[in-house]
């Protein structure tokens, strides 16, 4: 199964991705993990990404896409994957569609984890991270609304909305029920 995970920061995508990855038997591919792995291993892509990160700049879409493409070409992703953190923009979604069409495959769906912004703020403040204050969280939510939320319209009928409020197992149950309803 080939899926993209969407949802605002704090929606629980990472938590759900770990569970879904195990249940579906496909790798969870997080762009954050990809950056860390490539940088840690000193790959050419990692060296290039580190230069941007060290300078406090965003890693360009083209470089992120090359990392994602390399990861999707690994054997464990041949039968499917969960993409978390890519695409973040409509431009990146088009790049992903091109990468997948080169492989002769397409997405099975796009899970959109829905949660009210006030709930997100509460969740993220409860984590107690130093960099999580209400102003920073609301700024991140604004960036999500501007850059990533347009993907919901872009993907249209492929969107599978999941109510992300509740216990982890409840949310996962909703996601698994929705996925089991997909045509095989």
TrEMBL record:
Catalyzes the reversible transfer of the terminal phosphate group between ATP and AMP. Plays an important role in cellular energy homeostasis and in adenine nucleotide metabolism. The gene is adk. Residues 30-59 are annotated as: NMP. AMP binds at residues 31, 36, 57-59, 85-88, 92, 129, 140. ATP binds at residues 10-15, 127, 166. SUPFAM superfamilies: P-loop containing nucleoside triphosphate hydrolases. PROSITE patterns: ADENYLATE_KINASE (PS00113). Belongs to the adenylate kinase family. One of its GO terms (molecular function) is ATP binding. It is found in: Cytoplasm. Consists of three domains, a large central CORE domain and two small peripheral domains, NMPbind and LID, which undergo movements during catalysis. The LID domain closes over the site of phosphoryl transfer upon ATP binding. Assembling and dissambling the active center during each catalytic cycle provides an effective means to prevent ATP hydrolysis. This is Adenylate kinase. Its EC number is 2.7.4.3. Keywords: ATP-binding, Cytoplasm, Kinase, Nucleotide biosynthesis, Nucleotide-binding, Transferase. Pathway: Purine metabolism; AMP biosynthesis via salvage pathway; AMP from ADP: step 1/1. GO terms for biological process: AMP salvage. It catalyses: AMP + ATP = 2 ADP. Monomer. One of its GO terms (cellular component) is cytoplasm. Its main location: cytoplasm.
């Amino acid at each position: 199964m080939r899926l993209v995970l969407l949802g605002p920061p704090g929606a629980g995508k990472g938590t759900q991705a770990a569970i879904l990855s195990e249940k579906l038997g496909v790798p969870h591919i997080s762009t954050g993990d990809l950056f860390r792995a490539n940088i840690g291993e000193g790959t050419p892509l990692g060296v290039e990404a580190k230069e941007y990160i060290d300078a406090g700049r965003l890693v360009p879409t083209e470089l992120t896409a090359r990392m994602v493409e390399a990861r999707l070409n690994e054997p464990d992703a041949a039968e499917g994957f969960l993409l978390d953190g890519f695409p973040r923009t409509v431009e990146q979604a088009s790049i992903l569609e091109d990468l997948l069409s080169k492989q002769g495959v397409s997405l099975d769906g796009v899970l959109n984890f829905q949660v009210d912004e006030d709930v997100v703020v509460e969740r993220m403040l409860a984590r107690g991270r130093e960099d999580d204050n209400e102003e920073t969280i609301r700024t991140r939510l604004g960036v999500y609304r501007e850059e990533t939320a347009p993907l919901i319209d872009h993907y249209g009928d492929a969107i599978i909305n999941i109510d992300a409020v509740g216990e982890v197992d409840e949310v996962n149950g909703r996601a698994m029920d929705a996925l089991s309803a997909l045509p095989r």
